[in-house]
Amino acid sequence: MATLARLQARSTFVAHQYYYRNSVVDVFRKKEYDAAVKIQSWFRGCQVRAYIRYLHRIATVIQKWWRGYSGREEYRLLVKFASCAMKMNFYNAMAVRIQRRWRGYRIRKYCFNYFYLKEYLRAVSETNDAIREALEEFAEMKEREEKKADLEREEKERDYQARKMHYLLSTKQIPGIYNSPFRKDPDPWELRLQKAKPLTSQRSKVKDKHWVSPNSWLECTSARSFPRSEVLPPIDRKQCQGPFRDITEVLEQRYKPLEPTLRVAEPINELNVAREEFRRQEWMRNVNDNMFLPFSTYHKNKKYTPLMHSSSKYGPNSYGSRHFRDENSKKWICDKDFQTVLPSFDLFSKYGKLYSKAGQII
């Protein structure tokens, strides 16, 4: 019982010691845990850094090998292009030499052949002489024909003047002006008047005596636009001699058509009419007169109307949209189109064939 009593008396002290020691252990446990975490993080960091250094060394080795390989390949390509350019220059020089020899031979053989040119110039001079003689003969013939036509025209004019002045012919009672009694011989015009026939006036044929068009009546373009009496039948007697004019000429001079001034002929609204005509011509020349609506969807469902200069019934014109140089296949030297620079082996084989063919031609 005494022991139990002592234990009960010390129970509070034991409880305090238990709780105190548990709290101290928790503090040390936290410190140990933090120390372990720090040691693990340091070790893992060293491990990761060592692995990264290993990866860097491996990447450096890979890059070194790859850069060396790519540099060698690029150098091989440069050497290949340089050798191709050297061979192309050599082939071009050989082709120029072959062309020079061939053109010199052709010029000496065909273009600047002295005897051939001499014969050609002699033939040309003979042909020119023949053509010149023919042209001179033709010019003389044309001159004779023109002179003959002029003489005939003058003779016709004299005959017409003689017929027109037939009333000046001499009579038995009164001598004419060309047959003066103070002259020994009569004037040649007197003889011409004796041979000529008098010029008679011809009446114009009237289609309808009683009808005149309203337009000719208003514009006064017809000689019979004014009311006149009916044409009397001709009198069966000889026409009077003298300087009488034709009736049609007199009527035309009497009833001249109306010639209004510019102010009367042109309308007052001429400027407005001209503006309307200009608008109508512009409307006719417009290909597409729809309003341009760039910021709306109104015109999206409408059918596109192509322009006149970019389309036709023979097909669209691609100039300016696809190419800027006209291609004419009839002027090509060969049937094949131009090609780009071929690889070295194909270039060597192609130019080797051309060189062998040029050698065979020479």
UniProtKB/TrEMBL annotation:
Origin species = Neovison vison
Query: Which Gene Ontology BP terms does the record give?
Result: establishment of meiotic spindle localization; mitotic cell cycle; spindle organization
| GO cellular component term, pick one | cytoplasm
Localization per Swiss-Prot or TrEMBL = Cytoplasm
The protein's UniProt keywords, in alphabetical order, are: Calmodulin-binding, Coiled coil, Cytoplasm, Repeat
- Note whether Coiled coil occurs among the keywords: yes
Q: What is this protein called?
A: Spermatosis associated 17
List the InterPro entries hit by this protein, alphabetically: ASPM, IQ_motif_EF-hand-BS, P-loop_NTPase
Coiled-coil segments on the chain, per record = 117-164
Write down the SMART domains for this protein, in alphabetical order.
IQ (SM00015)
Name one matching Pfam family: IQ
Stored Gene3D superfamilies? 1.20.5.190
Broad class of the protein's primary localization: cytoplasm
